[in-house]
Amino acid sequence: MFLSDFIIDCLFLFVLGVYSFILLFFYSFILLFFYSFILLFFYSFILLFFYSFILLFFYSFILLFFYSFILLFFYSFISPVLFFYFFCF
Known about the structure:
- Keywords: Membrane, Transmembrane, Transmembrane helix.
- It comes from Helicobacter pylori Hp P-4.
- This is Putative membrane protein.
- By secondary structure, the protein is mainly alpha-helical.
- It has one domain (about 25-89).
- It has one helix at about 1-89.
- About 0% of the residues are buried.
């Protein structure tokens, strides 16, 4: 009687330990997956925001520089030439 209760208790504790180990493993795996997914999403969102802001700033600066240079060149050099060409000749 005592031996069968001891064996049943040992089997129960073994099954409980295996079940808790499996639950711990899967729960940690699921938490690791979801936390890594959430962190990847937020880090990619933050990096996307900052990179897009930086790229937007630099591209707008470069485009503004080139457009102002082209317009400056056009208004300062080409338009007087066209003006003199059309109205003086």
